[in-house]
Amino acid sequence: MILTVTLNAALDVTYRVPRLEPRASHRVREVAERPGGKGLNVARVLAALGHETLVTGFAGGPTGERVRELLTEVTEPGPVGDALVTTGGTTRRTVSVVEESGGPGAGATLFNEPGPQISPAEWERFLDVYGELLAGADAVALCGSLPPGVPVGAYGTLVRTARTAGVPVVLDTDGEPLRRGLAARPDVVKPNAEELAGITGSTEPLHAARLAQRRGAHAVVASLGADGLLALTPDGAWRVTPPRRMAGNPTGAGDSVVAALLSGLAEGLSWPDRLVRATALAAATVRAETAGEFDRAVYEELLPAVTVTRQRAAAASAVG
Amino acid sequence: MILTVTLNAALDVTYRVPRLEPRASHRVREVAERPGGKGLNVARVLAALGHETLVTGFAGGPTGERVRELLTEVTEPGPVGDALVTTGGTTRRTVSVVEESGGPGAGATLFNEPGPQISPAEWERFLDVYGELLAGADAVALCGSLPPGVPVGAYGTLVRTARTAGVPVVLDTDGEPLRRGLAARPDVVKPNAEELAGITGSTEPLHAARLAQRRGAHAVVASLGADGLLALTPDGAWRVTPPRRMAGNPTGAGDSVVAALLSGLAEGLSWPDRLVRATALAAATVRAETAGEFDRAVYEELLPAVTVTRQRAAAASAVG
């Protein structure tokens, strides 16, 4: 079983409008709701890849109920197991306003509600549940932002608990929670170039990845958008690029990278094979009709076409 | 008891953001939720004026549950009674994005979800409930848009049922539902200038009001924004103006006019007294801190200061 943690789960709501006009009234043509928050997205992709998957974190209020209801509807090919801890607060919504006049992915305006206030007792309860779930986990992903009330060093605690339990841990967050999580030595961190720059101060991805690795991550997989991935691992360094630049909606591409890394890790794949899977899956996510889904045909087609290039120390330094 | 009907109830959500930037991601600083839809707003104002009030219409899904939960929290000075009929669909949300950089009321961008699909069986069920509730009602207000599935002639049916039951009926809607409702001869319709123009083709309010009256309304009370009200009634015609133009948020001012007209009708006030109450209450709503609430001190202060001018036929024709 693969476990994903989403402390700040969300109900993702998408509105389609002909065009967004500030300070005007809009008739929404179509409303779509999905379970949201990075860890839930990762879990859906894992389930689609055929892995037994369990989600934990917090859910509460009517939006939390709706998230859990939508999770039970994920059944192709397997369901996502619900081990969310109930909070007295209300799960946040994210509202994404998509303009029909724009191209795919163009013109989305996002409104992110703050998360529910988590009480110290709820956090303790979560730590208990997390410890129990780790006993049956082959790998765990810690994903996204922290809701109010959760200690900023939360990911440090969760990384240490996983490592003590012998469960490989992938961390995908940013800012201070990432900085604090790094120090606890996670197996993998997956920042994008901007997040890497945010915690290291370096805008040169390879240099920034090296700094992040020095701060504690065993492996750093940096997503460089349409340019693919850059990975520094205990087995070597690689650049991985899709065969062509994909036009589409990048929402969820990063979550697909995390899902592929976990999936490859659980199956015992080599680092290059995990990175190929991650790159093909991210590109297939960009190409999908619905944000956060992936196009299986594109994924299958890209798998043999992704280029992996081992970076030697000297050559690697020339990158960027 | 005063009954208000909201066929397309809503959960009104307000987001505060520093500034709305199309195609950017916004961290919402504050989220507020209120029961919404014109009839629910009217009921809250009636309850605040001390009237026993009951709401009906449709509510369903997690948002419908939330609307009902919020209604139970209205207790000052009396509660609003919940006689909403449960639908299998989900009550719509309206999302109002307010920019903190703007002045009060400035800078609100609205997103209105479509309502739930009402089945023929649900509509029949509502008609039964409505008929039963009318037996105990002193007056009834029919407010707002129609959700999908409800016949476009719905308000015609509801007006006829109320008149047969001998219950005075106020209609506040627009477009084709208003046109069809008018033909059933409601006691009062309360369009604004734009809605009047929409159904009559005349942009001159007095002329348009006369046309609306000819089409079936016993009385037409047209709201002219900061200029007050224009009323054509069986007892005469009046122009009513607040003592000064009010700066503030006009959201809910029209609902306060409906509440005041119902309240005055239930108390047996004369037409001029009802119109004074409506004008003072609308102005006090514009001045309130929270959209849709009213400022009681402003209301009390304005009541004796509102100007009512009887319009003679000839003089009336010169207006506009």
Task: Output the keywords.
nucleotide-binding (chains A, B); 11-stranded mixed beta sheet; 37% helix; 25% strand; 4-stranded mixed beta sheet; 11 helices; alpha/beta; 16 strands; disordered C terminus; kinase (chains A, B); homodimer; globular; UDP-N-acetylmuramoyl-L-alanine:D-glutamate ligase; ATP-binding (chains A, B); 320 residues
Give a nutshell description of this structure.
Two copies of one chain form a homodimer. Chain A has 320 residues and is of the alpha/beta class.
What would your notes on this structure say?
Chains A, B: Residues 11-292 form the Carbohydrate kinase PfkB domain. Chains A, B: Keywords: ATP-binding, Kinase, Nucleotide-binding, Transferase. Chains A, B: InterPro entries: Carboh/pur_kinase_PfkB_CS, PfkB_dom, Ribokinase-like, Tagatose/fructose_Pkinase. Chains A, B: This is 1-phosphofructokinase family hexose kinase. Two copies of one chain form a homodimer. With 320 residues, chain A is an alpha/beta fold. The relative contact order of chain A is 0.12. In chain A, strand 10 (139-143), helix 4 and strand 11 (169-172) form a beta-alpha-beta unit. The longest helix of chain A is centred in the C-terminal third of the chain and has 16 residues, at 271-286. In chain A, helix 1 (38-48) crosses helix 8 (253-266). The first copy, chain A, starts with a strand and ends with a helix. In chain A, 37% of the residues lie in helices and 25% in strands. In chain A, the strands form two sheets. In chain A, strands 1, 5, 6, 7, 10, 11, 12, 13, 14, 15 and 16 form an eleven-stranded mixed beta sheet that branches. A four-stranded mixed beta sheet of chain A has the order 4-2-8-9. Chain A is globular, with a radius of gyration of 19 Å. Chain A has a single domain (2-10, 37-90, 116-318), classed as Ribokinase (UDP-N-acetylmuramoyl-L-alanine:D-glutamate ligase, 3-Layer(aba) Sandwich). The model of chain A is unreliable at 314-320 (pLDDT under 50). The first copy, chain A, has eleven helices and 16 strands. Chain A binds chain B through residues 15, 17, 20-29, 31, 62-63, 65-66, 95, 97, 106-114, and chain B through 15, 17, 20-29, 31, 62-63, 65-66, 95, 97, 106-114. Strand 9 of chain A pairs parallel with strand 3 of chain B, so a sheet runs across the interface.
